[in-house]
Each structure stands twice: as structure tokens, then as C-alpha cells.
Amino acid sequence: MRVTERGQPEPHRRRRAPGSLETQVLAALHEAEGPVTAGWVRDHLAADLAYTTVMTVLARLLAKNAVTRRREGRSFVWMPVADQAGLAALKMRKVLDGEQDRRAVLARFVTGLPEGDEQLLRELLDQAADED
């Protein structure tokens, strides 16, 4: 527990929801009119974050192929690859890639979907098959 200068317990800070910083960083990158630095991202986030925190989030997004970067001078500029839906799809793919019995995982996924989502998935699969 942290303590204030007066020896009083500091109020508990609420933990962020998993992935919320990634979501905020991606949103900031999508608002940018082009490639931007980590400092720009930090300045455009609602939260008061350390530069190192922003860099950590950007590095994680880079590892997930949700952003790209290129060197400009002595630093990098960052660009989004995926939107929110794309990031969710990347997470789903990563989970699926980590499983040995893909068929069982996909079967459980499909049978666990609400009826409307199951029908939507069928339509999307039919549409993808038509495009091939």
C-alpha cells in the first residue's frame, strides 16, 4: 500500500481493463494524419502516462502486428496496421495458433455463439468462399 506525505494511505487506483491502453494508443494513431512519434501518442492520450509506458504498449502492438514503425532520424515513427476489429481478430488468431486441436477449438467457438452471430459467421464464410 502506498502512503501519502502525511502518512495517510493513498486511495486505491483502479486497474485498467486488459487491453485498454492498447485500445487508446491505437485510437490515437488512427486520429493522426500520418506516422507519429511515441511522444506525440503520449501527448494525445487522455491518461497521464510515462513515455516508457507508451513505448511498451507500442512495442506490444508491434509484436502483434497491429502497428508498424520506421526510423526517422534517431527515433521511430509509428503507424496503425489494424483497427479495433483487426486487433481483436489478431488476438483470436494468436489464441487459435497456440492450440493443437484447431478443429475442436473452432467447433466449440461456433457452437458457443448466439444464434445471430452464428448466422453472421455463416454468411461471412459463404462470402469469403465466393471471393476465392
UniProtKB/TrEMBL annotation:
GO molecular function: DNA binding
GO annotation (BP), single: negative regulation of DNA-templated transcription
Highest taxon of source: Bacteria
Assigned protein family: Belongs to the BlaI transcriptional regulatory family.
Keywords assigned: DNA-binding, Transcription, Transcription regulation
Entries under Pfam families matching the protein: Penicillinase_R (PF03965)
Organism: Streptomyces mexicanus
Protein name per Swiss-Prot or TrEMBL: BlaI/MecI/CopY family transcriptional regulator
InterPro entries in the cross-refs: BlaI_family, WH-like_DNA-bd_sf, WH_DNA-bd_sf
